[in-house]
């Protein structure tokens, strides 16, 4: 088998840690590896001015065969955050193999997280898996949303992907 090495597999990594300081919740700890990009936390919610809003961006284009993304979000006691993505995630066609996203969320006592990424768009013959693991304290709250579109409308794709698996587990 001849493999096309014209593009290297992407290995994106992101770690975000939020804490409560004297006035508001802050992004205290973060680490990222390209193509995953995160800039500073923004505070723009007029109803909750102390809420840090963080957007995850990718400089790598669509998800390709062999790409592996990992992200870890940790909220310290009584901290809160809103995390989203800057745009939809497009999954390109693949001949074999797959791309994947692993997310681990840890919410400690009294923590609150809104994790609402933009939709996932699997193209024809896309192969994608995601696994979200959640550790949540009994007094913590999580608002989690996952939107998966059926394909690209203008390409007349409707559920034409090859593999799509999404699992979420919480304890």
List keywords for this structure.
single chain; mainly beta; disordered N terminus; 171 residues; five-stranded mixed sheet; six-stranded mixed sheet
Describe the structure.
This protein has about 170 residues and is mostly beta strands. Helix content is about 0%, strand content about 50%. It has a 6-stranded mixed sheet with strand order 2-1-5-8-11-13, with no helix packed on it. A 5-stranded mixed sheet has the order 3-4-6-9-12, with no helix packed on it. Strands 7-10 form a two-stranded parallel sheet.
Quick check: average pLDDT? 91
How would you spell out the order of helices and strands?
EEEEEEEEEEEEE
Helix content: under 10%
The main sheet comes to: 6 strands, mixed
Oligomer: single chain
Neighbour order of strands in the largest sheet: 2-1-5-8-11-13
SSE layout:
Elements: E1 11-20, E2 25-33, E3 36-38, E4 53-58, E5 68-75, E6 80-85, E7 89-91, E8 99-107, E9 112-115, E10 120-122, E11 127-136, E12 141-144, E13 163-170
Parallel strand pairs: 1-5, 4-6, 5-8, 6-9, 7-10, 8-11, 9-12, 11-13
Antiparallel strand pairs: 1-2, 3-4
Summarize it.
With 171 residues, the protein is mainly beta.
């Amino acid at each position: 088998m001849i493999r096309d090495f014209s593009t290297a597999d992407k290995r994106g990594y992101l770690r975000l840690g939020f804490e409560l300081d004297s006035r508001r919740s802050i992004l205290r700890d973060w680490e990222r590896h390209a193509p995953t990009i995160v800039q500073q936390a923004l505070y723009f919610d007029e109803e909750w001015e102390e809420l840090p809003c963080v957007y995850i961006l990718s400089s790598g284009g669509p998800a390709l065969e062999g790409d592996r993304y990992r992200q870890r979000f940790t909220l310290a006691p009584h901290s809160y955050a809103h995390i989203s993505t800057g745009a939809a995630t497009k999954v390109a066609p693949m001949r074999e193999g797959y791309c994947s996203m692993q997310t681990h969320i840890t919410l400690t006592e009294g923590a609150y997280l809104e994790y609402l990424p933009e939709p996932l768009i699997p193209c024809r013959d896309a192969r994608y898996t995601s696994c979200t693991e959640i550790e949540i304290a009994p007094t913590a709250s999580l608002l989690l949303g996952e939107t998966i579109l059926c394909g690209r409308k203008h390409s007349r794709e409707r559920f034409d992907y090859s593999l799509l698996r999404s699992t979420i587990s919480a304890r």
